[in-house]
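hey
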């Protein structure tokens, strides 16, 4: 018998570990399948590992209708999944414009479709993001200066408030490995032309910025960026536990909102204080604050001189005696 390709073995191990780490074994898992090398290699490995574990597999290919051949590409991806023994679905969506750009709009439509299937099946969704995708995400976060939150990159497992579970088994796997796995298994991946279009910021980071960093600073940049994300996620998890313990003692419900003790905020380091402010607003009003907005609210604690309420997305913040009151607008 021919020996198993190292690339195929690596991806199967990654999928096996991801499935084993779930708190409860699902009856079915869903693979988000674009037809590209990453998702196709993931689908093949999932079909193999899930079959051994007695888990059903479905694939969902989202047809955004944004390219002339999108219907054909989606059908071909579904056919490849079916050949692997996977029950393949194609979800056609209408991409609504939000003003955030076509890439973000397509992503929103895609995740909404995957979420609908996941909830209907009560199944987690496996996504084919690789170490290279993680490195690009961290690099883009650095370029925006958007803080440690964005530098954590993509989590290996994320559970949304509605219970949808997203799993990324391949975050430690290089993109070249998924291509090698597809070649070894005779799977012909689709190359999305958008992945080579320099109009997209992520493409420029992939094709231009990361190769320059590798050439000038030496190999291993992608791995270093991915390690940074992992370390920051570990720190953030510990930090979040501290914050939740702190919030229980200093937060009270107020009319049309919530209030926080100014003295307690002042007693904490700036990093903790700012994080409490962001988490309170996110939890109560469902919006995220920018760095500038967070610092302005913190000034109600550290630099109070009678300034009036601060307008924030979805709410206002004001000093009322010894408390910072966040109220719905």
């Amino acid at each position: 018998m021919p020996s198993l390709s190292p690339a195929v073995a690596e991806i199967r191990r990654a999928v096996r570990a991801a499935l084993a780490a779930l708190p409860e074994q699902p009856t079915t898992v869903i693979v988000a399948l674009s037809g590209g090398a990453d998702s196709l290699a993931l689908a093949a490995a999932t079909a193999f590992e899930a079959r051994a574990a007695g888990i059903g597999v479905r694939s969902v290919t989202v047809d955004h209708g944004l390219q002339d051949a999108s219907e054909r590409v989606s059908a071909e991806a579904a056919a490849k999944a079916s050949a692997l023994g996977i029950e393949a679905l194609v979800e056609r969506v209408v991409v609504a414009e939000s003003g955030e750009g076509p890439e973000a709009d397509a992503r929103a439509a895609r995740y909404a479709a995957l979420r609908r299937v996941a909830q209907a099946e009560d199944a987690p969704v496996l996504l084919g993001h690789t170490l290279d995708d993680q490195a690009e995400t961290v690099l883009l976060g650095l370029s925006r200066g958007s803080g440690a939150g964005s530098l954590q990159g993509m989590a290996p497992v994320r559970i949304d408030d509605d219970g949808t579970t997203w799993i990324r088994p391949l975050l430690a796997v290089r993109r070249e490995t998924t291509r090698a796995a597809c070649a070894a298994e005779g799977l012909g991946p689709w190359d999305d032309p958008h992945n080579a279009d320099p109009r997209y910021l992520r493409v420029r980071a992939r094709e231009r910025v990361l190769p320059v960093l590798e050439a000038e600073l030496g190999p291993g940049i992608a791995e270093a960026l991915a390690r940074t994300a992992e370390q920051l996620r570990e720190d953030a998890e510990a930090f979040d536990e501290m914050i939740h313990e702190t919030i229980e003692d200093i937060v009270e419900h107020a009319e049309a909102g919530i209030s926080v003790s100014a003295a307690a905020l002042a007693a904490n380091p700036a990093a903790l204080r700012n994080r409490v402010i962001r988490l309170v607003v996110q939890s109560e009003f469902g919006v995220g604050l920018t760095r500038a907005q967070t610092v302005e609210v913190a000034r109600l604690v550290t630099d109070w001189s009678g300034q009036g309420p601060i307008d924030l997305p979805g709410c206002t913040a004001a000093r009322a005696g010894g408390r910072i009151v966040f109220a719905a607008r």
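The domain at 6-225 is CATH 3.40.50.620 (Rossmann fold). Residues 85 and 123 are 18 Å apart (CA to CA).
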